[in-house]
Amino acid sequence: MTAPSIGNLADLARIAGVSTSTVSRALADSPLISEKTRTRIAELAREHGFQLNQVARNLRLGRTQAIAVVLPLGDESAQHVSDPFIMTLLGFLADALTERGYDLLLTRIVPADDKWLDRLTISGRVDGVIVIGQSDQRAVLDRTAARYLPLVVWGEAGIGQQHCAIGTDNREGGQLATAHLLSQGRRRIAFLGNPAAPEIGARHAGYLAALADAGVTAEPSLLLPLQLGSEAAFGLTRDFLAAHPEIDGIVAASDVAAMGAIRALSEAGRAVPEAVAVIGYDDVPFAAHTTPPLTTIRQDLGKGAELLVAALFERMAGTATPSVAFAPELVLRASA
Amino acid sequence: MTAPSIGNLADLARIAGVSTSTVSRALADSPLISEKTRTRIAELAREHGFQLNQVARNLRLGRTQAIAVVLPLGDESAQHVSDPFIMTLLGFLADALTERGYDLLLTRIVPADDKWLDRLTISGRVDGVIVIGQSDQRAVLDRTAARYLPLVVWGEAGIGQQHCAIGTDNREGGQLATAHLLSQGRRRIAFLGNPAAPEIGARHAGYLAALADAGVTAEPSLLLPLQLGSEAAFGLTRDFLAAHPEIDGIVAASDVAAMGAIRALSEAGRAVPEAVAVIGYDDVPFAAHTTPPLTTIRQDLGKGAELLVAALFERMAGTATPSVAFAPELVLRASA
DNA sequence: GCGTTTTCTGCAATCGATTGCAAAATTGAT
DNA sequence: ATCAATTTTGCAATCGATTGCAGAAAACGC
């Protein structure tokens, strides 16, 4: 049985018969404290189940030891709650931050005005901010970045952009995906996704580039503008197939979208990949378990999280870091 | 252009030419402050983009205004990072807490010793704790609950259990799922999941009960003990099919598992649902988008999150709340 | 105009830690 | 035993807010 737990450092000091300074130093392993008292105090602390009050400690030290991770639920879909891609990244971020002794404050925001980010940065609740996805908030991000250094964003590194964005090279990813379908002899390739979103726009650009490289004329009518995070891929693809039965490949902007497309194809009696090849994007955990398993473009989120956190800590230390776009990777499975 | 921002309440007081007490009260809308100075100070605060330091405020008020949400990565799978089920619940929790003005501290823990929960509760960093999933940590949860009131757990409400658990009635869910297959005339029904985990054990009990009700003899060999959160459902099912080609139904312990099973069936040339019906569990977001779409047992996580948070706040206010098991729901789609 | 209420504002203690500086205790040399 | 050098400990200020209590200012009555 452990003794009743103790409220604060002063209580412990009283029990130990020393001053609070001594206790504080002992617990911090300060060399100013003799080996003997240090172990004695450590012993007492353990015995009474004492832990420092982190709030007080952080106030004194002028830090919070916490990082905000923000999911802005912009324009499109106040409901991509469950996008497995985002959630996987979140898991990796939690690990990376925990490893460095930081707490992760999860914040979901529906940007009503353009002050949501300011409120967070000056609240003093966190030492830094990671925003997942630029959504339609690039202006806000740029403005805040000019004034608040410890801010990094998962997303597309656009030209002239003021904030530090880290992500995969979406253009290259789109190109990889499309080139793979082309290499299989596919020629009527649709793009499933809305290029208005920054990341998707870049993937679409890659798609166009690959077609051009192969000497295939891009057909604007083969674009299916699916809202990001929407679950409408199935319906969209089904209707599209009626109008364009000639397609033999689909480049989807996400694995979730690819899944919807596969179901639509399957119900229309078009075999995947024999009749129509489908390639996804992200390589989310379930991508390996669809029927057929998804060929897709992998974004290494473990690496992404590591880069985000590393950049953030550099920024917390005072150095502005550049944006990073690292290479995505083609994962071959059965759908294309 | 806004004026340069101001560090603390004292600065603002100096600018306003009043004491910090007055500023503090004005910002808190205290009736002790005259209308005139109150608006004047509010104006100044806005103008200078001033916000109270939450850390200091919380220290003074003896609270943190933050709730820890813990994902214990127990025995099985240090890798259910991405389980869409957990992540969906997390999203709802974030909303429910934000709504009440609380921050959500996300913590992933691999329970190495039996102190992980104590460390959290006495660190003073949070006002309450929500643990997602009991994993193999029921003893720790019970012990902590005896001493620390503001703790609620998503999971199975077992008998004699000391902590407050909230979740769906897993036994009923297992029974619903199995009864549905039986009602279609299926008789050789396998169970895919590991009954050793509390929730799955209850679902398995429901499965057995439904079989008994229908007068069907339960066949122990039809149990596929899949680790929770594992991605081995595909391989397990494939191997199982070779040994038991006679089965005509599978009750899966999760949608992720069901998806793996469907792929295995599909590759073995057994049509779903014609030859073998498959029913999932959870109704995760992608369940509607598999091929074929999953018939499954829905756990209403929006409601679950609401119940968790409501119970937690009651407990923070001092009243012990009972465990809750609410009813799951059969969702009919195409796989069974 | 003067005393009494009522309204408004400020002083100073407090939350629970950390840390510079000075004082006390210990050690060592002679 | 004495004094200097060194080690160990404690005092008190500080981080940025909140709040009980007392004092100043304004309003009121006669």
Brief account:
The first copy, chain A, is of the alpha/beta class and 336 residues long. Helix content of chain A is 41%, strand content 16%.
Poorly predicted runs of chain A: 76-81
User: Most extensive interface: pair and counts?
Assistant: A-B, 55 and 55 residues
Order of helices and strands of chain A: HHHHEHEHEHEEHEHEHEHEEHEE
- What spatial form of chain A do the alpha-carbon principal axes imply? elongated
Please count the helical segments of chain A: 12
Tally of extended strands of chain A? 12
Q: Strand percentage of chain A, roughly?
A: 15-25%
- Whole-number tally of structural domains of chain A: 3
The assembly state of the depicted protein chains is homodimer
Helix content of chain A: 40-55%
The CATH architecture term of the largest domain in chain A is: 3-Layer(aba) Sandwich
Top-tier CATH class of the largest domain in chain A: Alpha Beta
According to CATH, the homologous superfamily of the largest domain in chain A is: Response regulator
Radius of gyration of chain A (Å) = 26 Å
Helix/strand class of chain A: alpha/beta
Question: End-to-end span of chain A in angstroms?
Answer: 62 Å
Mean pLDDT of chain A: 90
Going across the major beta sheet of chain A, what is the strand order?
2-1-3-4-5-11
